[in-house]
Every structure is written in C-alpha cells, then in structure tokens.
Amino acid sequence: MKPNKYFVIDFDSTFTKVEAFDVLAEISLNDHPEKETRKELVKEITNLGMNGNISFRESLQRRLELLEPHQKHLPQLVEKLKAVVSESFKRNREFFQTYQENIYIISNGFKEFIEPVVKEYGVLPKNILANEFRFDSQGKVSGFDDTNPLSANNGKVEVLKRLSLPGDVYVIGDGYTDYEIKHSGLANKFYAFTENVEREAVVEKADHIAPSLDEFLYLNKLNTAISYPKNRINVLLLENVHPVAVEMMKAEGFNVETYPAALTEEELCERIKNVSVLGIRSKTQVTSRVLENANRLMVIGAFCIGTNQIDLKAATQKGVAVFNAPFSNTRSVVELAIAEMIVLMRGIVDKSNKMHQGVWDKSAKGSFEVRGKKLGIIGYGNIGTQLSVLAESLGMKVLYYDTEEKLSLGNATKCKGLREVLQQADVISLHVDGRDSNTNLIGEREFAQMKKGVIFLNLSRGHVVDIEALRKYILNGTVAGCAVDVFPYEPVSNDEEFVNALRGLPNTILSPHIGGSTLEAQENIGQFVPGKMMDYINSGSTSNSVNFPNLTLPTLENAHRLIHIHDNVPGILARINQVLADNGVNIVGQYLKTNEHIGYVITDVNKLYDKDIVTKLRAIDHTIKFRILY
Ligand code: NAI
Question: For all residues of the chain together, what is the average pLDDT?
C-alpha cells in the first residue's frame, strides 16, 4: 500500500544541479557575437521578474527572445541536463520508482527538456507540470502556451490548486515559488533543498532544510537506497588540513566542520561526542580519554605519516579505524636526499659559507660527481626504494640492506647485513622506520666500519643515530659530509632554540625535519586520507588502515553489507553465520580478517532479510561495532 502522500519536486537547481536556461544559453548563443551581453540581460530580466518589477510572463517572453532557442538545440540541452542530475537524486532512483504515482515535477521551465531527463528516473509524463514551447515552421521557438498557469505569476500555486491532491503534500525545492505552495495552504510541508544552491529567504521559510534528498527521505522514513543521510555524518577536521580534503568531504555530502589548530584533550573530549569522522595532523593527541567520549566515531584520518599521537590500542578496542598517509611525501624526502648528497660531494655548504664571508676559494679538491659512486641504502621501504630508482638514474650503484625480504628494483644489490653496506658505500642514507629497536642503530661501532670520506644522510628518525658518535667521526675526518633532518630531541615550536652537538661542524647540513614538507606532499596527503576514510565509510574497505586488518572489498551490488567488528576470540564467525542461517538469510559473499586485537567480518547478504537479525547480530558477545551498508 502506497502512503497517501504526494511529493512535489522542483526541477531547476533541485532535480538538476543547474538552471536549464543557463545551459540553453550556452548552446543557443554558442557562436553569437552578443553571447555575453545577452547572458547578462537574461540574468537581469530573471531578477526583474523575481522582484515583481515585471510579470513572470513578460520575463519569460523577453528571455526567450534573447536566447533564440530552436528545436535543434533541445537534444544537446537534454544530454547536458542528464549529466547534471543532483547527486542525491541519482543515488535514490528507487524512491522515484517506488512512489511513481505520487511524485510530481513542477517547474516554470519547459516540458520539452524536462520530460526526457526525469523520465529516466521513472517520473510519469502525466505528473510533469511545466510550460510548453510553440515552434514556427522552421523549428524556431516562437513562444509558449500562454494558457498554461505556469507561464504566469503564482503559476505553481495555481497548478497545484487545480490538481487538488487527496492527501499530504510535501514540496521540495530551492526557490521562493516552491515555498509559496506551502504558504498558500496547498502543502503540508516545505523542504528547502540546499544541495546545489542555498537562498537565505527560502531557507528561512522552510519547515526543514534538506541538504540532500537523503535527508528528506530519512526524515520521512522513505529511504531505501542509503544507510544514513551523509549530511547527518559529522566530520571534524582540525589543524588546518589541506583545503582539498575539506572540499572532498563536503562534495561527498558530509557535514564538515573545520578548526585551524589542535584542540586540548579537554576540548576534544567535548567536541568529539557527535563526531563520526575525525581528521587531525600531528599535534592533536587522541588519547584513550578522548576515545571514551567518542560515542559515534567511526574513523580517524591522520593527515601525516606518523600515528604516535593516537592511542591506537584504545581506538581499535573502540572499533575505530585509523588511516594515515604513508607514502604521500615519499618523493619529497627522496628529492631532498638526492640534492643533499650532490651538494655534500661538492663541499658546497662550506664553500657557500665562505663566500658569504667574502672568501673566494676556487678548487676541485675533495669535489666529486655522484655518478659511479656506491650508494648504501639502509631500510628499503617506500622511501629507500624510490631513492634507489632515482639514484640509479643518476648513474649511482645502489647497495641496500633491509631486515625484511625485499624486491630489488633496477640493478640494486641486496646486502646480507648492515656491515656489508657500511664497508662498501661512498654515500650512506638511512631510511629505516622508528621502531624502538632501531635506537642508535648507527653508533660508534658502525661509524668505525665506514670508508674514510663517506657522505652520511639521516632523513629517517632522530633516535636511529648516536649523535655524539657522528660528531666524533665528522671531526676525525671519516665522515666527509653529512645531512641530518631528524634529531633525537626536536624543538616543539619555532620559538625554541635548536640545541645539538652537530651545530657548527664542517660540511654538515642541518634541516628542521622538513624532508617531507612540500606543498605537493601536503596536497597528496589532503587527497589520500579522505579517499581512504570514504572508502571505509562507503564500502567497509580497510586497505592501508594502521590498526584494522586490511581488507579490500568489491563494490556492493544488489546486496546489503553487514560489517561486524569484534574482539579477536574464536567462534565469532560461526555465531554470525548461525544467526543468518536461523533466519534464512542468503550469504552472497563473506570476508574475514583478523589481527592480534580484533576480527573484521564483512558479510554481503541478499536484499530480503528480517530486520530483527540486526539486533541479534549486535547482541553476539564480544561485538565491538556493527553497521550495515545498503
Ligand atoms: P617504510 O616502513 O616503508 O620503510 C622502512 C623500511 O625499513 C622497512 O622496509 C623495514 O623493513 C626497514 N627496516 C626497519 N628496521 C631496519 C633495520 N634495523 N635495518 C634494516 N632495515 C630496517 O617507511 P618509509 O615510508 O620508507 O619511511 C622511512 C623513514 O623515513 C621512517 O622512519 C619515516 O618516519 C621517515 N620519514 C621522514 C620524513 C622527514 O620529513 N624527514 C618524511 C617521511 C618519512
């Protein structure tokens, strides 16, 4: 039984993202010498009509005279309009099919281009209320049916009055004329649709604001296609994350709030309560206390490489997935390492310093090309491998050592141990991760094994190198040049003095942990992290998650996806499947992965199931979180 409810929907800037006349102008005036002036005039006349300075009919007449539309323009217009149907309309096709008889499109535009666009969604031609063109014998638009109330002021109200719908009427639109239907008593509710444009005068009058059709369907319990309206998912982005991230999250329809700095634990405990998606950089501490307050949190995005600022164990226990940007700044680090090794091999630092003091010291002594030299890379991960490729293209011979088994790229030679690299390399570059056991990986003993005149780079982590030992080996001439970007202790702000035993040493480049800090890297991070978080929200995919078992999932078609996160104890999968079997639910696909703390089970089921099973699945012991994707 269909409810006795009628849905009256506006076309321009509601069903489609645009005003059809603007698109028509681009087509019909394409090569017209007065294109721009006419487009301006059309806008002015539209405003005159809207402000009541001229009648709507006159405004329509004058605009058509300026636009000079022709029958031949219509197919192109229709194609363009089909491409710009509002996103939330596209994802809720099912609504149009289910309530076909009860859905009306109402517009002061023209049936000739509205009908082919809305028909694809199942809107019935008889339910399209719009104007109609009149054409002359050559196919030129010569006017419109001026007996149609929609060509006159107050047209939408008049048409609705004549329809006299026998039930509750809900109007969805972005314009004042849509509100007028409610104002005249012909509708029960007016929803201001703000997905494409937001007009203050209209929003003020609305019973509800609908940032998307999802919200309208959710409020009226009509949603079939989506789990939860995205505009109800609160996203909090702290620490000035890149604007591209903010744009991506907004375009997805989330309710996004930004804040330029980090929040204290106290502040974050308060702000986190209604937040589902949190984006931070390195300064925000996501402690277990913060997580205790996070009632709705699904995912945290660290817009940086490190995740030490997040209590990962607590996040995992709370069923919150964490993502970071592990290789968005890889290239930036590699470029700096390449530049530094060349600069050091030529003694440029000291030469430049002398020049600033007025000393001209022209000599080739101690200057070398990097071509043909042996580069020893310690840690052959994201950065080490990239460096390997670029260094080879400069003609260097690459040796590397990694504790894990790694694929050698290009002509790089794998070494069995650290010693082998240390003893042979002309340039040594560290790219290991920051695990505790790497503390003082390179100390007195290791420096003693290096060739005299070696160039030494550390752009990985500060604690990996014993600074006093490095100082000693620079001063005794073993290390002929070095570049250090990371330090065991780094100033917490730009106001704090940098204190370190390497200050003032010859041919030594010191940089303030900026190996990965480029605008390109920032933008890459800004794109990468939201991509991962949205994949997780939309499909349950956890690839590259720092704390969740990594699962890459196929897109969901014609099924529901049940996402179950639980403590990693035996037997949960069996219990999930028992509930499904007891309720006769057909499993279309199932994926399970565990790590030492949690199990992550994705079950795709066919569309028909009893809603009670949701309660039963939630009630399984050791369940941490459960959600459904439609
Ligand atoms: P990754 O995790 O991809 O690679 C690290 C590699 O080091 C792994 O293959 C691992 O097996 C290996 N490894 C760990 N301990 C080792 C040991 N004792 N001996 C030999 N191999 C060992 O990391 P990625 O992305 O390549 O980063 C490397 C380092 O660079 C990290 O410490 C990271 O924090 C740092 N980094 C520094 C930046 C800066 O601004 N200076 C920017 C980005 C990363």
Answer: 94
